[in-house]
Specification:
This protein has 10 helices and 15 strands. By secondary structure, the chain is of the alpha/beta class. It is globular, with a radius of gyration of 20 Å. The relative contact order is 0.15.
Length: 336
Amino acid sequence: MKAWLLNDFGLDNLALGEAATPDPKAGELLVKVGAVSLNFRDKAIVDGFYEPHLVPKPLIPVSDASGTVVAVGEGVSRFKVGDRVNSHLYSRWIDGEPGPDEPAYCFGMPLPGGLAEYMIIHEQSAVRAPDAMSDEEASTLPIAALTAWFSLVDYGQLQPGQTVLVQGTGGVSIFAVQLATALGAKVIVTSSSDTNLEAVKKLGAVAGVNYRTCPRWEEQVLRLTDGKGVDLLLDVAGGEGLNQSILATKAAGKIAQIGFLTGQTTTLSLMPLIFRQTTIRGIAVAPRSAFDRMNAFLNEHAIRPVIDHIYAFEEAHKAFEHLAKGAFGKVVIKVS
């Protein structure tokens, strides 16, 4: 099969080549990949600053895929040939709390990912793709949509009328705007682009704050919430900005720490954290059971993914370059 292979760190070392088409073992599905979508995790793996000591070489990268089952291993009962399925990042995290070794079984690193014509997904890990979505649309769900869903619903316990702040207009953030709006919450978005802020208002956001022209953005958020702060904040930036996130969140509010776009470390100011009694939880996507529940919600509310651009399989480098420059919603690669 054709596959993109990461032979060493750096985009120049991601090359289109050939690999053996895998055979499904007991309990496994052979999936003909229709499309994949890119996440910041994929870029970080290729660039060599996401757990580089764990990256096997060569590696077929990219975790999030959608496609069609073309063969099944012995004993498979959840799916059959012809079914359309999604990959799920944590291939062994089915329900409940995560185990200590979930990262050892992630697609796209260390397990082979979806940037190839075929991939293996265990039947217990696979999720039925929404019937109303194309492969390109469904490929955007496994990390971006599910991270937003778990942050808002399972962790955030978001209720109608509450206020949530979402950072940026990338994949997770756009899904968070759509989902939180459908849940009846009021959404505030921060971005460096006034154009993007106007666009997210059309998706349901009630207000936007440009953190470039308003570097003390947390003060504007407090003004927008009558001095209270937001009930829930989805932090995709990380770095030193976490201190501002605490100040923008209400007393006894919650922060879902999702990303590290501006840095993997921070100097945390403890007194605001203590006095505001803020809860901060690291979010590393979710179990498969949450994926199943989310897909039912997406169907019920007719939510469609926002895709910035779809690239051809041969244009993988262009897709990664687009992601690096920033995207409004998701960057997708059509495989077949």
